[in-house]
Amino acid sequence: MKTFRIFPVVALLVYFLFPSSAFAVIDNNAPSVKLRTTCTEGSVTLDNCFTDLSSLNNWIQNTRLPKPSAVNPLLIEIGPGKFTGSYNGLTLNCNPAAGYTGFISFHGSGRSNTIIEADVPLSVSSCTDLQFSELMMHGTESVFNITWSGGGNSTWNNVDVLADGGYGWYELTCGSSRGQHYWFGSRIRISNSSSSSSNVGANYISTCDESWFIGSELQAVATVSTNNNYVSALVTGGNGIAHVYGSVIRAIANANVTLPAANVTGGAISGLIAAVSTSTAPDAGIHIHGTGIDVISANGNHVAALAASGGMIHANQSAYNMSTGAGGKVTRILSNGGHIHAPYLWEHIPNPTTVPNFTSVDGADMTTVTTGTSDGQPHLVIYSANCSSKWYDAVDKICRP
Fold first, then answer.
1. What tens digit of pLDDT does each residue of 179-237 get?
2. Rounded CA gap, 60 and 152, in Å?
3. N or C: which end of the chain has fewer CB atoms below 10 A?
4. 133, 136, 137, 140: CA torsion to nearest 10
5. What does the CA dihedral 276, 293, 219, 207 come to, rounded to 10 degrees?
6. Are 111 and 135 in contact (CB under 8 A)?
7. 6 phi/psi in degrees, rounded to 5
8. What's residue 203's pLDDT?
9. Contact 89/122 with Cβ under 8 angstroms?
10. Using alpha carbons only, what angle is made at residue 304 by residues 372 and 336, rounded to the nearest 5 degrees?
11. How far is the C-alpha of 350 from the C-alpha of 70, rounded, in Å?
């Protein structure tokens, strides 16, 4: 009888010395799992917790049942810290035929706190309804950083994408229908400042899908001369569409950076250009409204704000800040078989001391003058290559001196 009386005491000691959470396992049906730098908190082992991207990827792709879908969504709660991959970070290869369609949410602990870092921090194929929030994705690849294939849709809230070179976002292959991507309060930046590679191309290049940027920033910066022919914040081609509202588009070349002259010929792009459309689909192109567009070169490069080659850009109600160094050239609009919707309202006629060698497109540039008019009143002037000054006074009906 004494043996049986002692047993409960032993059981209690085992319970307190080895709590049940020490034997935590992954529930393969879990609607939510965690990604942490450690799965131990306060000497307690967390259930449904991963500490590395590889294990999490493998569980999502091969183990989780039922597969993530509209009726069985999955939430990944990511704690503070840096989560790295040897080459790939998060790799999501959905298989709709097998019932794996996407519907995964990645929620971090703040974009300065949660960092997913790899050569390619995110690679997605055939997924829909993916959501990313409160985190940073840092790509160290000199070619592709975030790649998207096969259509689908995604939503991004308060996300930083930082790429060390190449293309920040690149759509590798198209889906059967055009995908949709929405960016809110996010920053997508490409630079070669932290990479040994001098390769900087397009910060965001869309050839298949439709992207919306609301209150966000698109920025491409060359800090050393680049191997690429061009540096641009936003490029669309093929079926790609981009809508930019209440945001910032910036293309920057730092001191000692030399680039080819800004130009578009067919699908070929060169120079420092804020936004480029080479889209061929009739409903594709770029729409920019209520957005600040900066094109700034410390060196004397030939720079441009908007360029269309076979594509379309609609950019009313935006503000422009353009400058280049001594001997450089500033072009507001470049068009080669494309169409950039007019009219545009810019600042006053550029001061040649700060905006040298200014050029644009006939009838596509419009501004005002307040001096030198026949009646002393402000007049509307339109860009015209037929005028030696490049500006035609629409009221006085003469070329400006």
1. 999 999 999 998 875 444 556 677 899 999 999 999 999 999 988 776 678 899 999 99
2. 18
3. N
4. 180
5. -20
6. yes
7. -75, -30
8. 87
9. yes
10. 105
11. 54
- The label of the residue with tokens 């501004």 reads 367
Q: Is residue 94 within a helix (H) or strand (E), and if so which, with residue range?
A: none
Fill in the amino acid letter for 61.
Q
Distance from C-alpha of 85 to C-alpha of 120, rounded to nearest angstrom? 8
Helices (H), 115-235: none
From 70, 74, 63, 91, select the one nearest 30 (Cα to Cα): 74
Dihedral, CA atoms, 162, 168, 173, 175, nearest 10 degrees? Answer: 60
Token pair for 127? 């997924």
Amino acid at 220: A
Among 102, 94, 27, which Cα is nearest to 70's? 102
State whether the Cα torsion 250-255-259-263 is positive or negative. Answer: positive
Residues linked to residue 322 through DSSP beta bridges, in sequence order: 295
Measured CA to CA, the distance from residue 193 to residue 145 in angstroms comes to: 15
For strands 44-45 and 379-383, give the pairing. Answer: unpaired
Written as one letter, the residue type at 214 is I
Residue 131 β-bridge partners: 105, 155
Residue with tokens 């001196």: 401
How far is it, in rounded angstroms, from Cα 343 to Cα 329?
A: 22
Q: Look up tokens 């049942």; give the residue.
A: 65
**What is the C-alpha to C-alpha distance for residues 225 and 218, in angstroms, rounded to an integer?**
20
Question: Mean pLDDT of all residues in the chain?
Answer: 87
Answer whether residue 275 shows pLDDT above 60.
yes
Q: What is the CB neighbour count within 10 angstroms for residue 336? A: 15
